[in-house]
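sorry for the late reply, my laptop died twice this morning and i had to redo everyting from scratch. anyway the thing you sent over, i finally got around to it. pasting the sequence first so we're on the same page, its 465 residues, then the predicted structure underneath. double check i copied it right bc i was rushing
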Amino acid sequence: MVNKGVGTKIVFAAAEAAPVARVGGLAEAAAGLIRSLRSNDEVELVVVLPDYGGVALVDERQHDLTLPEWAMPASVRTGTAPELGEVHLVSVPGMARPDPYVDESGSGWEDNDARFFAFSAAIAAIVVAERPDVVHLNDWHTAMALAWVDVPSVYTIHTLGYQGHADIGWLRAIDTDRATAYDRFGVLNPAAGAIALADRVVAVSPNYAAEILDPARSAGLHTVLEAKGEALVGIRNGIDTTLWNPLTDPFIAVKYGRSSLYAKAATSIRLHERAGWDHDGQPLIGMVTRLVEQKGIDIVLGTIPYLERMGARLLILGSGEERLSLWARDLASEYPDRFSFIDGYDLEVAHQIFAGADLFCMPSRFEPCGLAQMQAMSYGTIPVVTPVGGLVDTVIDDDTSPGEGTGFIAVTVDTTGMLDALHRGLSAWRQHSRRRAIQKRGMTFDWSWDGPTAQHLELYRDIAN
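ok and here's the structure:
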């Protein structure tokens, strides 16, 4: 039964939600949906996140949790977090780390299975205590919770690239009837089990929901996904349009909007200065990304020798795999007039790149939804993307659909395809009236969480009833 008088009660659990914990797109997506749901009177939201340490809560209170012996000691801090509202931060053995997932070398913590299975057990304990109408789990870090509780449930796939594979011996430790759903050919697979057990499975864009039914793109889970039938749906993520708004952005010196796009040039001048370049009228391509294979960093690095011929420059902000960082640094030394690399993540610089770049490059090998292309379009920065996942749902190629486009989509996912798409994007940018039309179309679209939240509410109501 749906709780009378207080709306649908949802336990929402994730490994990240900005600003409490931020590594990748999951943090932004989770935080955006949390804030949007909390603005709706129909929902009572209980947010559960890991306690990685270092987060102060207002009006904090703490209590212990009773979990399986292998997951003890466990406790939860409850209080108000900036920008998110009330959260429950779960502490289990080994959870507090400087990075949620990887050590200093970029390798995953060896005990990630134990850490996040204990977190899942804590989610289940909170579900039992809170008695929600629906539990909403996100990615493999929360997936094992359904081994302990059988309640109306939504499982969101932010990426199938990480499934949480672990030794099948964990089934003996978990020891519940439902745990057998996680046995995938003799390996414990949290993502596969949650997909099988959840009442609804959400992929974070309609095109990604279709892609993952293809054996070549499902990371081995196409049969589990096919079995869901109509219970597998695609709901595009949104972005926080109060945070990503060039009219109000506190991180850019010159504010602008659709009717004042001429002022965007001033942000470009500042960005050139930050990179150590003169602003001589040549277009600047920007990237804000994680340095991992999924994001196609090697694809775009392969375009750098051609930048001079294209009459363009490239600025990348990002961190991740050491080999990709070293490669980027070497290329920045070899082509200092064309390529600049900022190793790390800086929120202020990220905003300045979205505002000051002329084109925004996303050469992803797969991209369940992607947020950066929507953020770029909100700033009138033209996206150049690969034909994968949510990038296809959000970017319209202006060569394929003349007069309707919001960016450019490569034909192939490789350096050749990206070079062609960049050439086409740069050509359009150099045609002033066409550039302005593409920019304004991207800035006009509603990229907020309003539409996606309405779809989630309908999903919650459906399974709660």
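The CA atoms of residues 192 and 408 lie 34 Å apart.
thats about all i looked at so far, will dig more tmrw
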